[in-house]
Amino acid sequence: MEIPVERRILAANEGLAARNRERLRASGCFVVNLISSPGAGKTSLLERTADALRAGPDPVSFAVIEGDIATEQDAARVRARGVPAVQINTRGDCHLDARMVSGALDRLAEQTDLAKLDLLIIENVGNLICPTEFDLGEDAKVVVASVPEGDDKPSKYPATFLRASAMVVNKIDLLPYVDCDLDRLIGDARAVNGRLAVFPLSCRTGEGLEAWIDWLLAGARQTTRR
Amino acid sequence: MEIPVERRILAANEGLAARNRERLRASGCFVVNLISSPGAGKTSLLERTADALRAGPDPVSFAVIEGDIATEQDAARVRARGVPAVQINTRGDCHLDARMVSGALDRLAEQTDLAKLDLLIIENVGNLICPTEFDLGEDAKVVVASVPEGDDKPSKYPATFLRASAMVVNKIDLLPYVDCDLDRLIGDARAVNGRLAVFPLSCRTGEGLEAWIDWLLAGARQTTRR
After folding, report:
1. What is the pLDDT of residues A21-66, one digit of tens each?
2. The sheet that has A119-123: what strands, in order across it?
3. Domains of chain A by range and CATH?
4. Are the beta carbons of A177 and B179 separated by less than 8 Å?
5. Are A130 and B94 an interchain contact pair (Cβ–Cβ within 8 Å)?
6. How high is the pLDDT of residue A2?
7. What is the pLDDT of residues B118-151, one digit of tens each?
8. Is the pLDDT of residue A226 over 50?
9. Do residue B128 and residue A2 have CB atoms under 8 angstroms apart?
10. How far apart are CA B35 and CA B20, in angstroms?
11. CB-based contact (8 Å) between B162 and chain A?
12. Mutating which of B77, B129, B130 best tests the A interface, going by the most A Cβ atoms within 10 A?
């Protein structure tokens, strides 16, 4: 009995996601759905990304939608970096859905011109499982793993790694202090999904950020050319 | 339309949880439902707990039920410590439910005498949100936070901290290397739930484990006296 209901919910979500996608593609915006466990460093990655894009040679119009069960903390952190950001509070729900993002786009339009946006990153609720099922209208899902979580997550949570276009491995500065074999982590992720782009980096030290930024900029360029 | 379905699912789960509780209370077993983000260190905590209980002065009959979306890795790790353990694979589901635990108890009974069990720890799927809703028949929920996840999780995922009897804060050996204010983390958790027992510890160094073990043994003693 649960399965038909789940199918109906997902089908309704897909319709709304298609509308979000149409709305954002019209402006040539590259849209990323950022998924990870709680505390892997999604918001720190957005802060670093904002700083790097601002310091880069080409102007990039970047905005953020933040998803959390509760609090405005993350949107405030991103806005403090000069990036337009709106917060979704799901009030208990374990993932974002396309309807929530549609409402957030309306609010974001009050802060910035959506038609000129090059890059939109949607930070999902901290959860390595449920967000994967719900299309928000993104061009790419990106999963953020982190070194202190250990190297066994791709085999234990395969669906999220399978559906992602890229994996950021954050907190590589902690490699000397924890039991995490980076080669095993990347190898296991690629065993699940051979096409995964992989970016080991540290939001604390800045190491490895350039390749991640280049990937985002390439996505933004490709989307603009569509 | 989603809400009545959710209520029916939760009501059915509650009936099965009550049956699990009755079955385990008959043998005076203290049952813990262990909840955390992926990679906070639930399985490492079980390994350390197994070693400490075996080295302690009193014999304690301890068993484990492991919950994961995929793989038998965690049950194998626990069995390697000499502890009877069965693995549940949810095959995509983001949480354990009472029906899964009921089946796991039947399988566990093939490895150990449930009637003589003092302590059963059920390691839930790595997810700080969804497992909280589903009673498994436990006496206590325990949430495992970890230092590298940062100090903002109790305010961002309040339901899990509200319903827990105790919080383990794992990986305190990483405090010098990450931006995590332990006092803020504990203060925020206690602001959500003033009755929370708190155990900062490191599964890597063993620091702080005694208080956690004492809490488990006290729970096992109280449950036996019922």
Report:
1. 999 988 899 999 999 999 999 999 999 999 999 999 988 999 999 9
2. A85-89, A62-68, A119-123, A30-36, A140-146, A166-170, A197-200
3. 2-225 (3.40.50.300)
4. no
5. yes
6. 53
7. 999 999 999 999 999 999 999 999 999 999 999 9
8. no
9. no
10. 18
11. no
12. B129
Does B205 touch chain A if contact means CB atoms closer than 8 Å? no
Report residues of chain B scoring pLDDT below 70. Answer: 1-3, 224-226
Residue with tokens 């095993």: A184
Q: Which two tokens stand for residue B205?
A: 């160094």
Pairwise CB contact (< 8 Å): B156 & A127: no
Is A29 strand, coil or helix? coil
- With b meaning 16 or more CB within 10 Å and e meaning fewer, what string describes A45-72? bbbbbbbbbeeeeeebbbbbbbbbbebe
* B4 burial via Cβ count (<10 Å: 0-12, 13-18, 19+): exposed
pLDDT number for residue B2: 53
- Helix (H) or strand (E) holding A53, with range, is helix A42-55
Within 8 A by CB and 6+ apart from A20, the residues are A98, A101, A102, A105, A136, A137
At position A30, the amino acid (one-letter code) is F
Rounded to whole angstroms, the Cα distance separating B25 from B20 reads 9
Q: Are B90 and B100 in contact (CB under 8 A)?
A: yes
Residues A139-190: pLDDT tens digits? 999 999 999 999 999 999 999 999 999 999 999 999 999 999 999 999 999 9
